[in-house]
Design brief:
The protein is of the alpha/beta class. A seven-stranded mixed sheet has the order 10-25-26-27-23-24-11. Strand 8 (228-232), helix 8 and strand 9 (258-262) form a beta-alpha-beta unit. It is elongated, with a radius of gyration of 31 Å. It binds one RNA strand of 75 nucleotides through helix 5, strand 6, helix 7, helix 12 and strand 21.
Length: 573
RNA sequence: UGGGGUAUCGCCAAGCGGUAAGGCACGGGACUUUGACUCCCGCAUUCGUAGGUUCAAAUCCUGCUACCCCAGCCA
C-alpha cells in the first residue's frame, strides 16, 4: 500500500459540502462572514472568519462580508471600519462582495407583508412580560397569544402603522405563527419585527421597525446566494427556524442555503466575551480595545502578532463540534515559529546591570559585526559597539552560582555575544545587598572571529555598551487571567457556598495583577531606525514589536512572546 | 423534568467494522557564540461507562453518566 504523499486535511463541514456538491444540491460554494458591528473582532471571531473564507476558497467559491446590522441600538460605523481593517490585515478579501443586512430591510418588509396575508405572521399586542409568560418554559408548552388569530386585515393595518411610527416602542411586535407548543423554544412564534425609534448607522431614520436576527439572517443569506451558512454551535437550535423562514419565503428568494454549525474557539487564560472585554475597557483595567493584552485583533496586531501566525493557529486547531478550550501555548508557538524565521536579531538589556572591563583600554571602542539572523545570511548584519563599560541583564550574574547556572559569576567566564570572553573578578553591592556593578577582565585575544575566540565557554550573554546605546521601554505581558484554580484562596473562603457557575463567571477575581511589567533598559544603537510595527528578536529575551507610543526620545517595545526557556523550567522543578 | 448537541493522551484533533494519524505541551539526548532554533528518541494494549452483535468494534445496537446550548421585543 502506498502512503499518500500529501495528507488530505478535511473536516466534517467540508465532508458535508462535498456530499452536497456530489448530490447536486448545490453547484458551487458561497459563504459569508456576518459580524454584528457592535465591537471589535477578537481571536475567537477568527475561527468563524477563517472557516468561512477557507471553506469557500477550498471549493473554489467566494465569500461575502455582511454586517449583521439589525439592531441600531448597539451598532456603530466605527466598528464596521475597524472590522474591515482587521479582516484586510489578516489577508482576506471579500471577493463575494460587501453587504449590510440593513440593505434587505425593504425585502424583509415585503416578505413580512406576504406572510401576514398568508396567515403566517401576526401583530401581537402582548407586553414583553406577557410574551414571556405565554411562551411557557423548557418543560411546559406555551399557549397562544389572544391576538394570534386576529383578522389578516387587522395585522396588515397594524404592521403598516408600526412602520409609520404610530405606535410606541414595545407596544406591538410582529410574530411568526409556528407552534407555541414546540419543544424547541425558538419555534414558539418567534418575533420578526420590533419597534425601535433609534437612528440606524446606515439607514438613519428611515425605519422605526427592525427585523430580528432569526428572520433577517436566512433572508440575507438567501438573497446573497449563500450556499452554506457556517455559524457557531449555539445556533443549532435555530436551524429549524432558519429552514422554516427560507421555506416559507421560497417564492420570493433566489436560493435555499444550508446552515452548518461548529464549536467556537476558547483559549486558556483569555477572556472571549464581548461583554467582559467591554468591562475591561470601560473599567480602565486596560488602556483600550487595542491594549496589547487584549485578545482583539487590533491589540494582537499592536502587540506584534502576525497574520500568518494567527492563520496558522486557526488552521491547527481544526474545526469540530466538541466544546473545547485551546492552550494559549499553541498560539504562542505559532508566533514564535513565524517570527523566528522572519525577524532580525538585535540586543537589548531590559534590566541592566553595569559591567566594567578593568583591563579594557580607556577610550577604546571596538565595532563588532553581528549577523541579523544566524540561519539567513542574506538578511545581512549590523555592528555593535563594545566599550569599557557595558550593561548585561541582572539575572545573568550571581555572586555565587546556583546549581546548573552557567551565566556570569565571580571567578567564572562567559562569552559576550559576537564580542569577547570575559571573567568576573569582583562586584559592588548596595546597602540591601543588591549587586550594582561587576568588575571583569577581558580576554583581549578572544575577539569574535579570531583564533583566540575558538574556546569552549558554556554561557553566552547579550550586552549593550554603557557609553553608546539608546534607552528603551519594554512592556512585558502576561495573560489577563491567572491560571484556573490559582491563588484565589481568600475569596474562596468567603464564597465557599457560592455556586461554582457564578464563580466561574466572576472573571474580575481571576484578573492577573501582573499582566503588565514595564522595564527601562538600553538597546543597541542599530535599533534606532526601527519604526512602529517593526519586530525584532531581542537576543535571549524574546520577540519585541515597536509600539506607536514611542517618541523621538524613547523607543517603546511590546514583547510579543518570550523565547522558550528550559532554564527557568529546570530551576522551578 | 422538554428539546438540541458533545464525549478519543495534559490541550486540540484524525478515525466512518479490520486491530489508535498529527500538532501543542511534557520528558530524555545530540548540536549550539541565543539555556533559542534544528535534530533524534519517548509519550493512549486504549477510545465517558455498562452490556450486546461480530471471526473482528473507538467505529453498529441498547442502557447509563457527564458536560454544553435554548424560556431577548440581542446576535
Amino acid at each position: 500500500m502506498g502512503m499518500e504523499t500529501t495528507a488530505k486535511k478535511t473536516n466534517f463541514i467540508w465532508d458535508f459540502i462535498q456530499q452536497d456538491l456530489e448530490s447536486g444540491r448545490y453547484q458551487s460554494v458561497h459563504t459569508r462572514f456576518p459580524p454584528e458591528p457592535n465591537g471589535y473582532l477578537h481571536i475567537g471571531h477568527c475561527k468563524a472568519l477563517v472557516t468561512n473564507f477557507a471553506t469557500a476558497e477550498h471549493f473554489g467559491g467566494l465569500t461575502n462580508l455582511r454586517f449583521d446590522d439589525t439592531n441600531p441600538a448597539k451598532e456603530e460605523t466605527e466598528f464596521v471600519d475597524g472590522i474591515m481593517e482587521d479582516i484586510r490585515w489578516l489577508g482576506f478579501d471579500w471577493k463575494g462582495g460587501l453587504f449590510f443586512a440593513s440593505e434587505y430591510y425593504p425585502k424583509c418588509y415585503e416578505i413580512a407583508v406576504d406572510w401576514i396575508e398568508r396567515g403566517l405572521a401576526y401583530v401581537d399586542e402582548l407586553s414583553a412580560e406577557e410574551v414571556r409568560t405565554y411562551r411557557g418554559t423548557l418543560t411546559a408548552p406555551g399557549k397562544n397569544s389572544p391576538w394570534r388569530d386576529r383578522p389578516v386585515e387587522e395585522s396588515l393595518r397594524l404592521f403598516e402603522e408600526m412602520k409609520a411610527g404610530k405606535h410606541p416602542e414595545g407596544s406591538l411586535i410582529l410574530r411568526m405563527k409556528i407552534d407555541m407548543a414546540s419543544p424547541n423554544m425558538n419555534m414558539r412564534d418567534p418575533a420578526m419585527y420590533r419597534i425601535l425609534f433609534k437612528e440606524h448607522h446606515r439607514t438613519g431614520k428611515t425605519w422605526c421597525i427592525y427585523p430580528m436576527y432569526d428572520y433577517a439572517h436566512p433572508i440575507g443569506d438567501a438573497l446573497e446566494g449563500i450556499s452554506h451558512s457556517l455559524c457557531s454551535l449555539e445556533y443549532e437550535d435555530h436551524r429549524p427556524l432558519y429552514d422554516w423562514v427560507v421555506n416559507h419565503a421560497q417564492n420570493m428568494l433566489p436560493s435555499a442555503p444550508r446552515q452548518i454549525e461548529f464549536s467556537r474557539l476558547n483559549l486558556t487564560r483569555t477572556i472571549m466575551s464581548k461583554r467582559y472585554l467591554r468591562m475591561l475597557v470601560e473599567g480602565g483595567y486596560v488602556s483600550g480595545w487595542d491594549d496589547p493584552r487584549m485578545p482583539t485583533l487590533c491589540a494582537l496586531r499592536r502587540r506584534g502578532y502576525t497574520p500568518a501566525a494567527i492563520r496558522d493557529f486557526i488552521d491547527r486547531i481544526g474545526v469540530a463540534k466538541a466544546d473545547s478550550e485551546v492552550d494559549l501555548a499553541l498560539l504562542e508557538h505559532c508566533v514564535r515559529e513565524d517570527l523566528g524565521e522572519t525577524v532580525p536579531r538585535a540586543m537589548a538589556v531590559l534590566k541592566p546591570l553595569k559591567v566594567v572591563l578593568t583591563n579594557w583600554p580607556e577610550d577604546f571602542r571596538d565595532e563588532l559585526p553581528m549577523e541579523n539572523h544566524p540561519a539567513h545570511p542574506e538578511m545581512g548584519g549590523h555592528t555593535s559597539v563594545m566599550t569599557k563599560e557595558l550593561y548585561i541583564e541582572q539575572e545573568d550574574f550571581m555572586e555565587v552560582p546556583a546549581r546548573k547556572y552557567f551565566r556570569l559569576f565571580i571567578g567564572g567566564e562567559v562569552r559576550l555575544k559576537s564580542a569577547y570572553i570575559i571573567k568576573a573578578d569582583s562586584c559592588d553591592q548596595d546597602e540591601n545587598g543588591n549587586v550594582t556593578c561587576v568588575y571583569c577582565t577581558v580576554d583581549m585575544d578572544s575577539r569574535n572571529g579570531s583564533e583566540g575566540a575558538k574556546r569552549k565557554v558554556k554561557g553566552t550573554l547579550h550586552w549593550v555598551s554603557a557609553a553608546e546605546n539608546l534607552p528603551v521601554e519594554a512592556r512585558l505581558y502576561e495573560p489577563l487571567l491567572m491560571e484556573e484554580n490559582a491563588e484565589v484562596e481568600q475569596e474562596d473562603a468567603e464564597d465557599a457556598s457560592a455556586p461554582a457557575a457564578s464563580q466561574k463567571k466572576d472573571f474580575l477575581k481571576r484578573l492577573n495583577p501582573e499582566s503588565l511589567e514595564v522595564c527601562h533598559g538600553y538597546m543597541e544603537k542599530s535599533l534606532g531606525d526601527a519604526k512602529p510595527g517593526d519586530t525584532y528578536q531581542f537576543l535571549r529575551m524574546g520577540y519585541f514589536c515597536k509600539d506607536p507610543d514611542s517618541t523621538a526620545q524613547l523607543a517603546v517595545f511590546n514583547r510579543v512572546v518570550g523565547l522558550k526557556d528550559s532554564f527557568k523550567k529546570a530551576v522551578k522543578a
